[in-house]
Each structure stands twice: as C-alpha cells, then as structure tokens.
Amino acid sequence: AQSVTQLDSQVPVFEEAPVELRCNYSSSVSVYLFWYVQYPNQGLQLLLKYLSGSTLVKGINGFEAEFNKSQTSFHLRKPSVHISDTAEYFCAVFLGDDKIIFGKGTRLHILP
Amino acid sequence: KAGVTQTPRYLIKTRGQQVTLSCSPISGHRSVSWYQQTPGQGLQFLFEYFSETQRNKGNFPGRFSGRQFSNSRSEMNVSTLELGDSALYLCASSLLWNEQFFGPGTRLTVL
User: CB within 8 A of B40, min separation 6: which ones?
Assistant: First the structure.
C-alpha cells in the first residue's frame, strides 16, 4: 500500500539556522511529490512539487526539496529559517486517479 | 482572483445532529476535494467531485456525504454526528491534477 511517512512530528530549530524536514514514501507507481505548509488557523498552501526532471526542486519562501528515488525520500530544506516559518509542514504523494495522500505533518518551531 | 472560501468557519453541534458545510472553489476550477484534519489522524481524504460527479471516495462511513452543483460549489453533509467527528474540514479545488488550492477550513466541534 502506498504511504507517506514524516519521520519527525516536531522539529525545533533556532532562528537563522538551517532545517531539514524528512519525508519518505512508498509507492508502486510513478510518484509525484508535494510539500504543503499550514500556518495557524489557515488552510494548506503549496510550497513546491516534484513531477519530473531535476531532482532538486525550489519552492516559495526559500524552501527546496530533493527527490531521491533510491532512498524513496523527498526531504524539505531551508538554509536559514525565520520566525515566520513557524507552521506545520505536510508531505504528500499523488497516486493517480486524482488521489493524494498526506503525511501526518511536522510542526516546525522556531526558537529565538 | 478570489481563493477557495468555506462557510461557516466555525461550527458547534451536539451529538446526533447533522451538519452541512459549504465550499466555493476558485473560479474555473471544476474539481473539489474534501479532507478531514484531526491531531491524531492528520489529513484524511473524504471525497472528490468533478463536474457534479463523485470521482473518488475515502474510507469514511456513509454518514459523510457530499455533492457538487453546476457552478462547482460543493457541500458536504455529516449526519448523526459523533464526538469523533470534531475536526477541521478542509476543501480544496484544482484546475490541474498537480496543484490543489485549499480553503481556510471549517472547524467543527461536536459536544
């Protein structure tokens, strides 16, 4: 069965430090991968997506992610976080037939 | 262009009641999906509508139903509410399969 695993439920990081949010997936079909961000009391907003081509994908707000097929991973990174990055981040896999499954989310806490 | 709107934003109901939530997609988007978000289960797919037809359905009981109108607006209904139905219900619309736009959600509390 297809699944998405976000290995950390919470990640604390100091302001201006780098961060990596981990995501692993399992799928028997071609994968299309997404990262969404949810700010408090808001819906989800697309950060970036991997459909094909370059395995390094750049998104909004300085985030990027790397698709690694051999490790079935799609980790999200940012070289220097800001207090405004405090949010919950969701990794998602598109399975086809317009079905998307989401990971359980990772809460990013920015420490002053 | 206006984003996805959901009404109401907050709702309090008691067990056994039924509730209807509304979602207006971005103009031109014909696909509308519904999700339930809870702290324990995360985001779970409820169903997806395209041109007034349900195309996909998640693993939820029959108490959860939906429909889509000719203007692409969608409603979801939950009958015989249970305490466990307390959640944030998110609606997302899309023009293309590879990008969904989410509304702010309706927070339902069942007492």
Answer: none
